[in-house]
Amino acid sequence: MTNEAVVMKNVSKTFKVLNRHEGLKGSIKDLFSRDYNTVEAVSDVSLTVSKGEIIGYLGPNGAGKSTTIKMMTGVLEPTTGEIMVNGLVPFKDRTRNSENIGVVFGQRSQLWWNLPLVESFKLLRDIYLVPQKDYEEMLELYDSLVDLEPILHKPVRQMSLGQRTLSDILAAFLHNPGIVFLDEPTIGLDVSMKAKIRELILGLNKVKNTTVILTTHDMGDVDALCKRIVIIDKGRKIYDNDIDHLKSYFGSYRTLRMRLGDDSWIEQVIDEKTTDVMNVIQETQKKHKIKDIELQEISTEEVIRKIYEGGEA
Amino acid sequence: MKSLRRLTALTKAGVVESLQFRLGTFVTLFANLIYLALVYFLWKAIYASSGTDVVNGMTFYDTMIYLILATAIFNFLEMFIVWDMSRAIQSGEIIMHLLKPMRYRKYMFWSYSGSLVMSFILTFIPTFLVVVIVTKGAVPVGWNLLAFVLSLLLALVINYNIEMLVAPICLYTESTWGINIVKETIVLLLSGASIPLAFFPETFRKIVEFLPFRAVYDIPLTVLLKKNGTDSFDGLINAIVIQLIWCVVLTICGNLFWNHAVKKITVNGG
């Protein structure tokens, strides 16, 4: 077996969308219209993910993240390009590919709504043909990572969103798949639940060496989990590197905060390659009295925001 | 048997899940009583106005037994697949089903099987027993029961395939309600579930003979009631073979159509 969990080569995906017209007249026209627009959701993305890696797959809303994940899971067929997941072509071998992947789609659940969680687990054990011994070991592992007791015998429909997401993540890992796709797993969760879920993902990744591909809008997730991030915008890959490199993506940014004579703070984002921090302080000092100075590292969130807003680098 | 473990697990889960909605069973039984009262008075009026005891070879008694059992089979076979699938497609939930390590049509069939077992036990068997006891011997009880169970299983597969052939149409039309009504009406009328096939005009009945709907209601019922020559061994084999052929034909058609329809999802994202 190779060391690559996912290999994507020049993958593009276009959708045909009917050009809708306005109003009643337009709607009637649409009935017979052959006027299609092609929308390129993903264009020419190449990506290699090694086994055991956790990568953050980021991008603004509508950038093509979910489309990429759906192609990797085999529910969408790429228009052009090649995808290999665990050595299989996902859309051709969807059923076999499913045996070795786990999926959590944000606000969707694969659990049986009316059954206690443990029944869903047993059902998944049988559907994925997990040997009883492995299943028990997995439950022991879960028990050591999270507090299973309050959720195990609770019907899924009575769970809080946090408990349900936690359960869904556990369910996705249950058959010990090579890759788990997490599409916005922490959406809508409170701070402590987010922390629990991050710990769980990290723990499972460590023990089982599972590859995790994570999309999220929460930079806390990225900081806590990912060493490497990939950013796509308008379907194109615009960044693929370590999280540490990201901070110097637009240059070495830092935030300079100064407290003036009237106790108000002013903030300035400074690129240390082009501007000298000391110069800025001196310039300010000519006009105002400075009481206090703080120099902050730029947060991942700010860099990402700059990338999303700035588009091309 | 690897796959047997999957199938029984799905059936079991379906049984447990439908046990959570016990109340629904009683509502169904109550609704049936109202419907059967309607059927009773309607056909009583028909027989009264005809002036003879036997219409198209069936007495009032025969007709009632036929229709009551047809209703019981209807409750047993009702699966709402058209609704479920269109809802799953609109909400995107279908992705979770497509990502199971089993073929979609197989996975869905066995997901439904548990609730079928429950509705068989909770609605069909009680209705059947009441009919047998009340009519005191009008329903033959013997080896025909065994043949009936086999015939009913085949009817179940045929009905599932009809539903699975109709359901993906909503991928093309984006509307479900109309399609479901059309399907329901066609199946109930042409299968003999609402009017015994014996009452159909000769040419119409000939056409219906060559359609699969008859295999869902009329064949199991005639096998059970030993009508239409199914009391002889040859007649029985003949009826079962017709069902088997429809099973195979519809399974193949369903598979082909589904493979085409699923492309709508995988190519254009639903």
Can you list the strand order of the major beta sheet of chain B? 1-2
| Multimerization status | heterodimer
Helix and strand pattern of chain A: EHEEHEHEHHHHEHEHEEHEEHEH
Q: Structurally, how many domains make up the residues of chain A?
A: 2
Number of strands of chain B: 2
Helix/strand-derived category of chain B reads: mainly alpha
Could you characterize the architecture of this molecule?
- The complex is a heterodimer of chains A (313) and B (270).
- Chain A has 313 residues and is of the alpha/beta class.
- Chain A contains 12 helices and 12 strands.
- The longest helix of chain A is centred in the middle third of the chain and has 18 residues, at 191-208.
- In chain B, helix 1 crosses helix 6, helix 2 (22-50) packs antiparallel against helix 3 (60-77) and helix 3 packs antiparallel against helix 6.
- The longest helix of chain B has 36 residues, at 233-268.
- The mean pLDDT of chain B is 87.
- In chain B, strand 1 (54-55) and strand 2 form a beta hairpin.
- With 270 residues, chain B is mainly alpha-helical.
- Classes of the chains: A alpha/beta (313), B mainly alpha (270).
Outline the secondary-structure elements:
The complex is a heterodimer of chains A (313) and B (270).
Chain A: E1 4-18, H1 23-32, E2 36-50, E3 54-58, H2 65-73, E4 80-85, H3 94-99, E5 101-105, H4 117-127, H5 132-145, H6 149-152, H7 161-173, E6 179-183, H8 191-208, E7 211-215, H9 219-225, E8 228-233, E9 236-242, H10 243-246, E10 253-260, E11 265-271, H11 277-287, E12 290-297, H12 300-310
Parallel strand pairs in A: 3-7, 3-8, 5-6, 6-7
Antiparallel strand pairs in A: 1-2, 1-4, 8-9, 10-11, 10-12
Chain B: H1 2-19, H2 22-50, E1 54-55, E2 58-59, H3 60-77, H4 81-91, H5 94-98, H6 104-135, H7 143-166, H8 170-173, H9 177-190, H10 202-209, H11 218-225, H12 233-268
Antiparallel strand pairs in B: 1-2
Helix pairs in contact in B: 1-6, 2-3, 3-6, 7-11, 7-12
